[in-house]
Amino acid sequence: MSFAGLFPPATRRYLVTSAVSAAFYVLSIKAISWGQPQLSGPVLWGAILVPALCIAVQLWATLRLMAQVDEFMRALLARRFIIAACLAFIVASTWGFMETFAQVEHMPGFMVYAVFWVAFCLVSPFIRTSH
């Protein structure tokens, strides 16, 4: 069976958009890290906007998927999304307290996005109902 036959069109669009935006996200961060000594001014600021744009595209793809699936899947995705966001907020805030009061190593703010998607993957198998 082909990839097209495994998933409905909305899910295929989501998967492709997510994969492409994730690839550009990782590549852009690698490029900025590698080229940082040579980047400055508007070029640096423009380069920094690339991974931010990738995040925006991926979140837009997620919201578009929610709008295109049936009510049950929409509620399920929304519940998973909200719980994962709550967990990411908790982790980021807790880490911030630890940085301030326990002198642990700084966690870059952009890691909250990765924490969110890890949390989404971890909670999804356990959230199987929209109630």
UniProtKB/TrEMBL annotation:
It comes from the Bacteria. The keyword Transmembrane applies. The chain crosses the membrane at residues 12-32, 44-65, 77-98, 110-127. This is Transmembrane protein. Keywords: Membrane, Transmembrane, Transmembrane helix.
